[in-house]
Amino acid sequence: MQEEYKLLINGKWVNGDKKLEVRNPYNQELLGTVPEATEQQVDNTIKSAQEAFKLTKTLPAHKRSLILERISDIIRERKEELARTIALESGKPIKLARGEVDRASETFKFASEEAKRLYGETIPMDASRNGEGRTAFTIREPLGIIAAISPFNFPLNLVAHKVAPAIASGNTVVLKPATYTPITAIKLGEIMLSAGLPQGALNIVTGPGSTVGDAIVRDTRISKITFTGSASVGLGITEKAGLKQITLELGSNSPVIIDKDALQNAGQKIIERCVFGSFAYAGQVCISIQRIYVHQDIKDEFIKQFLKAVSKLKSSDPLDENTDIGPMITEQEAKRVKQWINEAISQGAKVLIGGNHKGPMFEPTVLIDVTPDMKVVAQEIFAPVVSIMGFNDWEQVIKEVNTSKYGLHAGVYTNDVKKTLYAAKNLEVGGVIINDIPTYRVDHIPYGGVKGSGIGREGVKYAIQEMTQPKFVCFS
User: What is the three-class DSSP state of 166?
Assistant: First the structure.
């Protein structure tokens, strides 16, 4: 019998009448069920977080830090169980799932450290004529209830990036995990309770975004929304949220630029990194490589080596230790990608490898002869599909990269310092990764984008800044 998972409300596990099935995207095996939260349960959840905030906002920093450190330790202790859960419900290859668990443990560790660093600042009041004889400072205070809406592709670490800084800064949380991957988040809830988190500090509700998510977003008791997902849903959140602070991470069509001198000393490593960045987790990563710009002088050689490496990738069961590429989250998504590729072919693009799918398993696919207006280039494909384009002029390729409506991360490979600095200054993105791929991320950096890639920043320290507000205190 499959396990029936429950909602977490005020420190207690609560059942529901209507059940949602959670299935393995690779073979459609039923993994368990979760309740579809009712309107009343959502209301109870927010009331619980509201009541718990009276405690968490006064909980000493050292106690918050200790709880978060315990969570980090327990995640590490339960690594294999959590990795297997991630692999089963998201389709992520087990070797990548283990890496996600390691990162989540580290994210909570960062949060435990940052909980002790909620500094205000002194204000030099005598800088103003009217400030003479006064002393002033600021203190940082938590906002209140943080609504965290997380995606399917990193069901543990992207939850951690929302929950950990919220708890570190004295807030409470209402978490709605992705409908496809709620079990990992529920197991994290179990871990957080066992680590001594006060009841009501974390609440978990499951159900569709169109009902449960909307109810949370519209509720005036929520102080802030932190969301990772599609641009269309993110835009909808901004229209419904009202007077709330919002952090949105909305994805990208991330580019990497490879200059003509780049392959000379590190060619094999660059190929390996670009293959990983293009196809890891079937391309279902916000900073997955979607566009590769290669200098014309090395384009043919790059493509030759790239295709050779791609042909060695193994697509199989995510639980297989040797699997490089697992399924897309649904067969419907695979069909969408196939339509985009067929449309590109009709407009003149060529497929060098891949291009087809069997069920949710999409072949790693490489395209050439694409144009900037094709969906496979201009929009976020979120699939194991990459387009390779040539360039001659450095400034011109930077301009071409910037024509995108997105701007999350960009990778740049060059040995020319002037070109490096030019790219760093002129690329319209949230992060420029020099001599590596845009898929690079560690969990304490300011992570986020510009333009259609969202607003605000994640990374524990930076998320805490956005989950707190300064209070001005002045003595006369």
Answer: helix
